[in-house]
Amino acid sequence: MGTIHRSGVYRKTNDSARLIIVTIVGVAFGFFVGISFPAVTFTKIHIHSSFTSSLDMSIVNQNEFRRSKSLETLGSGSNVTNIYVPTNPRGAELLPPGIVVAESDLYLRRLWGEPSEDMLKKPKYLLTFTVGYDQRNNINAAVKKFSDDFQILLFHYDGRTSEWDQFEWSKSAIHVSVMRQTKWWYAKRFLHPDIVGAYEYIFIWDEDLGVEHFNGEKYIKLVKKHGLEISQPGLEPNNGLTWQMTKRRGDREVHNFVEIMAPVFSREAWRCVWHMIQNDLVHGWGLDFALRRCVEPAHEKIGVVDSQWIIHQVIPSLGSQGKSEKGKAPWEGVRARCRNEWSLFRSRLADAEQAYISQTKKG
């Protein structure tokens, strides 16, 4: 028994000694290897690209995870400033005012470069036409009467847009295409006051206007001179007159009244008019008699610019977009709806005014 015990002790001692010697030799070998190859770096190790991509993605994901966790912690922390600014635009009360951009524009932007360098010159005015391709030459002649201070926006009721690129100006214009819609339908949906707030004046014109005696820059100067918030060019006396009130007068620069054929709105007046346009009444009949509600005093700020005039060519192009029913031509159905809309708008306006008066008396 005693012999066996001593033999076990001896083996344990030998094992311990062997372990110590191996460790010392390993350390020494590693030291000499380090001295012999001081220039060895990881750049000399070639790793398959798929592995490096996975490694990079893993690092990115880890960084994104850390960042999201950091933001999550920040968002739930007690050090975050609670923001509520009631004077911000509706829906943006929880944002710091410095980040709120309440208005937009229709300026075209690049996909590259510095945003601040996108535009060398920003258009001051917005010129819109609701068009069909058949009227392209007439629109081309009209556009040439306006300088590059005017942003061109075409609303296409016939679905044909790409063909307009035959005109160089069309390539920098904005094109919106929805089949068989009127200019007031487009205006209500695409010319929100917060979208066109960058423009001093908004032209909402028909497509069948002759502009031989018209110049856009001269027109703007006269509008500013007379302080007109809602205006239109005079109409050459011909069969295209809708109202005698819009006929050009040769003895003055301006006179009162504006109809819906070729109106021009200041940005302030347009904000009011836009809210008055009804979603379902697309022809705009009756608006001309209600425009006076959007400016004060109306007799000074609404007017026809007689010294810049146009000719209504009376081309019923939109009427042909209607549908023939009960043996009637398409344009007849369109005209019937125009008259019906005028009656509806007049009733709605009268009812709204009466409801307001009644509520005020109760208050």
Strand content: 5-15%
**Mean of pLDDT:** 82
Secondary-structure element sequence? HHEHEEHEEHEEEHHEH
- Backbone CA Rg: 37 Å
Q: For the record, give the distance between the C-alpha atoms at the N and C termini, rounded to a whole number.
A: 115 Å
Number of helices: 8
Shape: extended
Q: Regions with pLDDT < 50 over 5+ consecutive residues?
A: 1-12, 37-47, 49-53, 70-75
Helix- and strand-based class?
Answer: alpha/beta
Helix content: 25-40%
Oligomer: single chain
Q: State the total count of DSSP E strands.
A: 9
- Largest sheet features: 9 strands, mixed
List the helices and strands and how they pair.
Layout: H1 2-36, H2 49-76, E1 125-131, H3 136-143, E2 150-156, E3 174-177, H4 183-190, E4 201-205, E5 209-210, H5 216-225, E6 230-235, E7 254-255, E8 264-266, H6 267-276, H7 298-301, E9 302-312, H8 330-362
Parallel strand pairs: 1-2, 1-4, 2-3, 6-9
Antiparallel strand pairs: 4-8, 5-9, 6-8, 7-9
Keywords: Membrane, Transmembrane, Transmembrane helix
Protein name: Storage protein
Organism: Populus tomentosa
